[in-house]
Amino acid sequence: MGASLPPKEANLFKLIVKSYETKQYKKGLKAADTILKKFPDHGETLSMKGLTLNCMDRKSEAYELVRQGLKNDLKSHVCWHVYGLLYRSDREYREAIKCYRNALKIDPDNIEILRDLSLLQAQMRDLSGFVETRQQLLTLKSNHRMNWIGFAVAHHLNSNASKAIEILEAYEGTLEDDYPPENEWCEHGEMLLYKISLLEECRFFQKALEELQKKELKIVDKLAYKEQEVLLLVKLGRLEEGEKLYRTLLSMNPDNYRYYEGLQKCVGLYSKNGHYSPDEIDRLDALYKTLGQQYKWSSAVKRIPLDFLQGDKFHEAADNYIRPLLTKIFLRYTINLGRMEKEPPSTLMWTLFLLAQHYDRRGQYEIALFKINEAIDHTPTVIDLYSVKSRILKHAGDLVAAAAFADEARCMDLADRYVNSECVKRMLQADQVALAEKTAVLFTKDGDQHNNLHDMQCMWYELASAESHFRQGNLGMALKKFLAVEKHYADITEDQFDFHSYCLRKMTLRTYVEMLKFQDQLHSHAYFHKAAAGAIRCYIKLHDSPPKSTAEEDNDMSKLLPSQKKKMRQKQRKAEARAKKEAEEKNEESSAGGISKSGKRQAKPIDPDPRGEKLLQVEDPLLEGTKYLKLLQKNSPDSVETHFLSFELYMRKQRILLAFQAVKQLLRLDAEHPDSHRCLIKFFNKVGSMNAPVTDSEKLICNVLEAERQTISQLHGKSLFETNNSFLEKHEDSLTHRAAFGEMLYILDPSRRSEAVKLIEGSANNLVPRNGALGPIREWTLKDCISVHKLLATVLVDQDAASRWKMRCAELFPYSTYFEGICSSASPNSAFNQIRKSTETGSSNHWVGDHNAESTSNGKLEAFKDLTI
Questions:
Q1: Which residues sit opposite 770 in a β-bridge?
Q2: What is the DSSP letter of 601?
Q3: For the chain, does the N or the C end have fewer beta carbons within 10 angstroms?
Q4: What is the pTM of this model?
């Protein structure tokens, strides 16, 4: 480096490199300028100056200087290496790899460049290249432990565990007998455990066990040693030894469920699906009773039997598990009577608390509310009671009241972050976005809600906020929040980069491989699926209803009356003034940002698109949606929603074969799902209505679809009407399936709309008594009933039918705000609103008031008072 410079400047060049490594960027910049005064075209100095400027957030200058340096000295491995580092800093890993490879053509044995290349290959999962680079590093420096380990791990990741074992054994052959030294015991022990896990992966169980027991003294992690040993014993069929070892592990941790599962395997009493014969149940019961006597303080030993016991034995075990949890106060002592057991008053309250949740899970919300109100009347100062009441109301469909009770719980303990978060979530579910933001601010740094929640990767908040904005038609903010979650996953992927070298150095090899496997499945996580699916829905809606252009807005304005124009302009001016004020406030906040250790003020980043308006300005929304769809297809291929969105998107793009592929995937996953049926009928109805094929490609597509149609059992030898009728015959008792049938009947023949509506409304006749209360057959859900109402109102466009359906569902779901049930907060005469009005007028000190007043069916509730589990 800097070899072409005179000695004085060469030393200055070394100073630049050292300053870069020690983050003394100003010092390095000064040295670079000194060299460039005498040698303005020196490529390596220009490159290093650019790299230094990149660390000072002057990216445009940095790229310009590095490119200029490379242009001046194309045969310098330093210039190529620096160019790669620049790309790496911007996560342009593929471009960085190209630069590193060019550098290695010039200096093929440069260890630093090879090491950097290997890190990028691991990051990008270029596993064959990773093996090759690690082999080269080992060849160049075979006395370095990390090169041996890196080569072994590379082969393991490249699905060659047996080769990895050979490399580790060869490495051990280079060590002295008394290795490791005392300061490397932990690291060497981790390497040995990694090697044994490789032997297990290759199914060399006996060899793995022998190796493990042979190296016992050199393995520091004794718990990991025992867990590995017992796994190998079980796999070798040495169940008696395995049983003894599992009992030893249980004595160390009697609340570890995996140990109980392993013990059951050893005694021949384990079933994956949880189904056991009566004899097996008796034996399991005896086993856990024995274990329960040994580990009386263990919660797991009492909880696990509830999964397999039945009848009276289940009741006994449930009582044994629940009763101590309900009793919150220890046994009391009295002087005269000696020791005696007495149930404290709180036991009744916690029993009601449990019962309320029990009925909530059963969907019996009226009884659940009655029980939780009883508990609140008993002890009105327990926060958990209000949180559970909020949850019950949410399930019952009253999101506004749920948010109010969650806020009541929050106000009872303003220092509880969990209760605050739960309240924020309820507010977002009730579409109270502004109130939710103000509440969330209470637990963020400096009251800066957006930046801090984003920096903390608070994905539940961003998803809930995005869904709320989407429901309210604010696509810009919805997209902004959905894409923020997607960025978090990109950051998590990026965060693994530093571990490629750290884990090899610290020998945490088993955890490292687990982390890489987790990263490979990262985008299959539920939060990412929700974010990507939400973004696709936004882009589809944006395509269907694009925002008006300026010309269209001017045209609409010209149609207004002068007075209306004046009001519209006043609104626009106010909105612009408000936006300007917010921007100024943010600028003030950024200029008065936090102070660093050096005493300098750190400017907070300013959001250039706070309302997500720029995100809506895309030329092709469907193209943007396709980017996220491909991620879902790759990482969530077994989700019905993935292929339903694929169908919707590709049908709009007129990509017939891709849409048909989505239909086939839906039929593969769940041919009886209502959405699968919808897509099947819609697709072939659309294809049947297309014009006769003209071009060769259109003819080919038609031939392919005709051949494929014969392979679909639902369509074989049937018309679309017959297929639709067959679907109804199979699922006549299901509300969602009847709705799908009616919708498809209308699409196939719009003149039969009244028939479709009549059939869907006929679902309301399938009502039967359920669990002592009136309920729909096959467990109608509030969500399904809302979907049917939207179908009647917006797709079948029958407002009278929609109104009738709403009235019927208001009876079935009296707490639903959507259907304006009589007990919901949407009803002006509901108890909830009466209490709120009395609070506003000052007639009540505590707005929750008479909790039992929430139900108008006092007669019914009296009958429920004596109900128990």
A1: 773
A2: B
A3: C
A4: 0.84
